[in-house]
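HOLO CASE FILE
Compound: adenosine-5'-diphosphate
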Amino acid sequence: MPHIDKILIANRGEIAVRIIRSAREMNIKTVAIYSEADRTAPHVRMADEAVFMGPPPSSQSYLLSDKIIEVAKERGAQAIHPGYGFLSENAGFAAKVAKAGLIFIGPNPDSISVMGDKLKAKEAVKDFGIPLVPGSEGAIDDPKEAARVAKEIGFPVLIKAAAGGGGKGMRIVEREEDVEEQMALATSEAKSAFGDGSVFIEKYISSPRHIEIQVLADTHGNRVHLFERECSIQRRHQKVIEEAPSAILTPEVREAMGKHALKCAEACDYVGAGTVEFIMDEQLNYFFLEMNTRLQVEHPVSEMISGLDLVKEQIKVARGEALSFRQSDLKINGHSLELRVYAEDPASNFLPSTGKLEVYKRPLGPGVRVDDGFEEGMDVPVYYDPMIAKLVTHGKDRAEAIARMLRAIQEYQISGIETTLPFGKFVLEHPAFISGQFDTHFVSKHFKPELLTPELDASTTAAAALFAATIIGETPKKTVQQQQNGPAFSAWKLNRTR
Ligand code: ADP
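Model generated. C-alpha cells follow.
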C-alpha cells in the first residue's frame, strides 16, 4: 500500500486549514503553498512547511500546476490534496500528478473529465437507471432545433452550459420567441467563462429543491453514501445555507436517492469522496444534475451527522485502504446546519465588502464549529473567493441546530467589513425556513435588504434604540465599546444590544 507521511495542500484559506487539521491527527506532515496576498494567513503558519508561490492572482500562484508538483517532490510529499476550487476538478492536473509518481487525493482523471462535462455525465449515467431532467440529448447549436426541443419538453426551459459551474451560463426561457436570443447569450457567457460554448436544454423545474448525496468509494469496489444535504437556500444559483438531513425527505426517498447516487459513482468508476447533485420537484421526484468530483464546501454538515471525518477518509482511500464500515453501519445522528459567512453586504445587493477584520471573535460552545482561514487584524484579499468562514452547528434535532445557529450568529463578532451574518439570521428566523417549506427561490421570494434594517424588525427594539441613538448622537452606556469598533452596523453589534 502506498505510504503517505507528507501531503502538499494545493489550496488556501479555510479548506487548507481544514486539511492540515485532519492530517495532523493522522500524524501526517503538511506543506502549504501561498501567494503574496496570503503571507500572514493561518494555513501558512499552521502547516509544517510553507512554500511561496508568487503574486496574488491565482494564475500566478495557486494554479501553477507544474510548480506545485515540483515543490511536492522537492519537499518529499507523497501526495497532493487539491481541496475544492483551483485545481481540484482539473483532470489534466490529476493526470500530471500521477505521472510525476505522486498521489492525487481525489478520483482518477477519467472520472473528473466525464463528470466535469454535464452532457458527458448525463450520457455516462443514463444506462444506470438514474432519473434525468427531460431535455435535449446532446449539445445544441441551431436555434431552430433548440426551439423545437423546447416546445417538445414544454416551457419554461433552461439553457445550460455543458462546461458550466458556479451557476454561470444558465438562462431560463419562458416563450418560444425568446429561445434564439437567450441561446446566443448563454453560448457567449459559456464561451467566455469556460472556453467552451456548448449548451443544452433542460426542462425548467419551477419549484425545485437542490438535494445532494455525499458518496465515498474506495479502490476495492466498496461504496457508501453519507445521506443527503439540502442546499436549496441559494443566491444567484450559489448555495448559502446547507443542512443535513433535509427537512422533507422520507426514509424511502432517502434510500432510493442514496442508491442512485452510488450508481452514479459506479458509472464513472469513482474513487474517494464525491457528491451527486439532484434537483427535486414538489412531488419529491428527483433528477440527476451533476456529480462534483471533490470535497464540497458544505461537507461539514455530513460529518456532523455521520460522525465521520471526510478528509481522513479521503487520505485513507488514497493510501489504498478499504473503507472500514458498511452502509448498514451508518446512521443519521441529529441535525446540522452550515451558514457560509461571506465578506459581502446583504443590505446592498451582496456587494463585496473588502477591508480589514478589525474585530474577529468566533462563537464557541456546544454544537458549534467554525471552519475559517482568517484572524483578527487580517485583510480579506480581493483576489479570491470572499468566503470568510463556514459557521456550522449540530443539534439533537433541526430545532436545536437552528437555535444554536442563531445563538452562534449572535456571538460572532466581526467588524471592519460587512458580512452575510445578518442575512443568515433573517433566513433562520423566517417561517418558511423554519417550516421546511421552501425552494431554491427562497431568497428572491422572501428577502429584501430593507428587512435587515433594525427599525423594520419589531423584535429588535434594543437594536433600534441603538440605531436611533447613533443617529441623534447619543451613546447608550451599554454600547460604548461597540461604538468604538467603528460605525458599521454589523450583526453582532445589533445582536449584542438584545
Ligand atoms: P452549476 O454547475 O453551475 O452549479 P447546476 O447544474 O449544479 O449548475 O445547477 C445549479 C443550480 O441551478 C441548482 O442548484 C438549481 O438551483 C438550478 N437549476 C439547475 N438545473 C435546473 C433545472 N432544470 N430547473 C430548475 N433549476 C435548475
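CASE NOTES: The chain is about 35% helix and 20% strand. The chain has four domains: 6-105, 134-203, 209-450, 458-496.
CLOSED: yes
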